[in-house]
Amino acid sequence: MKKIILFFLLLTSSLVAQNEVKVDLSNPNSAIYTHLYFLQSDSYEPAKAATTIYGFQGKEAEEVAIKLKKILDGKGLKVDFSKVPTNKMYSDTTGYKIGNRYVLFPYQMPEIYVERVGGNWYYSSETTSQVNELYESIYPWHTEKLQQLIPAFGHKKIFKIELWQYLGLVVLTIISFFIFFIFKKIVYYILRKIQLWVVHKSNERIDTALKKLTRPIVLLIVIWFLKTLLPSLLLDLDVNTILFLVLNIMVTVFWIYVFLKLVQVVMSVYEEFAESTHNKLDDQLVPILHNFLTGIVIFVGFLKMLTLFGIKPVTVIAGASIGGIAVALASQDTVKNLIGTVMIFIDKPFHIGDWIEAGEVIGTVETVGFRSTTVRAADTSVYQIPNSTLSEMVVNNKGLRAYRRYTTNLGLRYDTPPELIDAFVNGVRKIIELHPATRDEAFNVEFSGFGDSSLLILMNVYFTELDWNKEQASKHSLHIAILKLAKELGVDFAFPSTTVMIEQFPEKKGLEMPYSTDENRIKEIINNINQK
Q: Shortest CA distance to 373 belongs to which of 361, 364, 385?
């Protein structure tokens, strides 16, 4: 029996000896573990923890080591040793530090890192020189005095949180509510002043956007207040880790919201400017630019969110770049269309609402999107032209014309007397001069030639109305006036016909039109021309 007991005692002592943690500074993982392990409540040996501090000795080194741990605890920064390198020749390649160094929390606290000196790893001299400054920034002057005022029963713990800490959390919450309601009005007033200083005007849409922007900004101020005073409560590391993770997630979300609302405010101002310009393409740029800026804000916010969970955004960007190349190769047409969109907005070959001719497509430009441009033809059918194709085509922008040209031939019967031809030409000229939608200083009405079935009267006019619908209405009124003139003069318009001459029936006479060439009558008709 004695032998069995002796065996178990020896076995227990050997296991304890095997599990005993020793000071090890051979690599970043062991050096950081040595520092934190010997400052735990159940293994508290500050002298051993102080061996990780380079350039300090004795009590001074112990004080630096203790403050370093409190700095990490106060910010809720818990070291994940599964991610800390064990390579004694580890070299940082992230860009934060260069050489044999390892930064514990490169995004939250890049000032704290270990480096290789000789054959061992220590906290760097740069880190130790900033310990007091970092400690005072995290733990304000009232932290120690607050501890002295707490009675003994206040240190009783419930779920790792002491009673006085519960009270402190309640007080911080109440103060946060007061800060929110006070700063809400102040921030809105400041935003209004900035907005009026920038654009010198306001409207209901901008005011609504500013009110929505005010709330997240005030919440960011409240969270900053909480993150500043929360370390003063000296909460447990696990509790601090959860609280700071939640607060940091909220900060990221609120910043995303702030920038999204800021984009909305900026685009509202730009939309006001776009509406005041003649260029309608600027109006179409508003939704495209809004979607582009929104995508950038969400993407950057997503990368920031990844850092809160220990994921390096550099890795994500590298993976996205490789994936982006593969996607770009697989969707070359989409990329070409996107580049074509950019070129259209830079060159501005047309505006929204312009009547264009692009190849076989003729119609009005309705929208310009990321991938294609929508053109509506006169028969209301819709064409979707890829922007890459459209940017390389010869585009005839009739919307940029100063006038709309209209050219046609008026065919008169071959038996029309020359006097009536002259009268008809002069009458059409006068109609054009008096027409409200034509240029009276630039037009042509001439007897231009002999057609197969008619005498050709060339009419070349310019309409001042650029809208297609108004142009058709102007043509209508012009044509009606010409028809009335022809009716009053007794002039007929020709149509395709064939005349057969039969010589063996000389007593048969052809059909003769009852033309009247009385000069006084013709002058009276021309003088009475007016636009109704």
A: 385
Residue 148 covered by a domain: no
Say if residue 198 is in the same domain as residue 324. yes
Amino acid at 381: S
532 is a domain residue: no
Residue among 525, 505, 507 at smallest CA distance from 516 = 525
Tell which residue, 225, 203, 232, has the closest CA to residue 75: 232
Q: Is residue 8 part of a domain?
A: no
The number of distinct structural domains making up the chain is 4
Residue 39 corresponds to which tokens in the numbers above? 């400052």
- H helices of 200-312, where? 204-229, 237-276, 281-308
Domain with 380 in it: what CATH number? 2.30.30.60
Query: Measured between alpha carbons, how far apart are the two ends of the chain, in Å?
Result: 132
Pairing of strands 372-376, 361-368: antiparallel
- 332, exposed or middle or buried, with CB in 10 Å at 0-12, 13-18, 19+? exposed
Pull the structure tokens for residue 403.
């006038």
Residue 409 contacts residue 435 (beta carbons within 8 Å)? no
Residues 180 and 318 in one domain: yes
Contact between residue 127 and residue 39 where contact means Cβ atoms under 8 Å apart:
no
Are 367 and 434 in a shared domain? no
* Residue 222 falls inside a structural domain: yes
Q: Are residues 312 and 205 in the same domain?
A: yes
- Cα–Cα distance between 36 and 49 in angstroms, integer? 7
Co-location of 347 and 301 in the same domain: no
Beta-bridged to residue 102, according to DSSP, are 114
Do residue 357 and residue 504 come from a single domain? no
Whether 349 and 263 map to the same domain: the answer is: no
Is 398:404 a contact under the CB 8 Å cutoff? yes
CATH number at residue 510: 3.30.70.100
Residue-number span of the structural domain to which 357 is assigned: 332-400
Do 70 and 115 fall within a single domain?
yes
Instruction: Tell me the per-residue pLDDT of 271-313, one tens digit each, with 9 for 90 and over.
Output: 766 666 655 556 666 777 777 788 888 888 888 888 777 676 6
- pLDDT tens per residue across all 532 residues of the chain: 555 554 444 444 443 444 467 888 999 999 999 999 999 888 889 899 999 998 888 899 999 999 999 888 888 888 888 888 998 888 876 655 567 888 888 878 888 899 998 889 999 888 888 888 888 888 876 776 676 677 777 778 787 787 887 888 888 899 999 999 888 889 888 888 887 787 666 667 777 778 888 888 888 899 988 888 888 887 888 888 888 888 888 888 888 888 888 887 777 777 766 666 655 556 666 777 777 788 888 888 888 888 777 676 666 666 555 555 655 555 566 667 677 777 777 777 777 777 788 888 888 888 887 778 888 887 888 888 888 888 778 888 876 777 888 999 999 998 888 889 899 999 999 999 989 888 888 889 999 999 888 999 999 999 888 777 888 999 999 999 999 998 888 888 887 766 555 555 555 555 566 777 777 777 777 777 764 4
Specify the 3-state DSSP secondary structure of 353: coil
**Contact assessment for residue 271 and residue 286, using Cβ atoms and an 8 Å cutoff:** yes
